[in-house]
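Exercise 7.
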Amino acid sequence: MRIWVDADACPKVIKEILFRAAIRTKTQMTLVANQSLYIPLSTFIKTIQVTSGFDVADNEIIDNIQPDDLVITADIPLADAVVHKGAIALNPRGNLYTKNNIRQILSFRNLSMELRSAGAISGGPPKFSKREIQAFANSLDKFLISH
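Solution. The predicted structure, written as tokens, is:
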């Protein structure tokens, strides 16, 4: 089992939780981004820097994940592809994407995009809260203990 991180948009506080968890549990983790990233010195943590472009980092993750890997992403289409490859996706806010909920989440995302492009709604997700950071840490620990 490996942890993959869609790292370009992953908040720093979430990366710090992931670094500690990977080292503590001796779990291999790969951060994929189109820019250089800081990572602590560890044999368990590495980065892959991809070129800029639409879905380049996503495709790198999709091409390399194995069933039962964990992917950290807020990108719902990426989470959909991850789930369909038999891996597990976890949102930085602590929500698991599963075969049971990904279609509904993807449909809601598509509807929101249509409403946003029509001007019916504006803005993005709310700022990260301490409760969401704790929910992520709890979900990550629960996953790591069960695998």
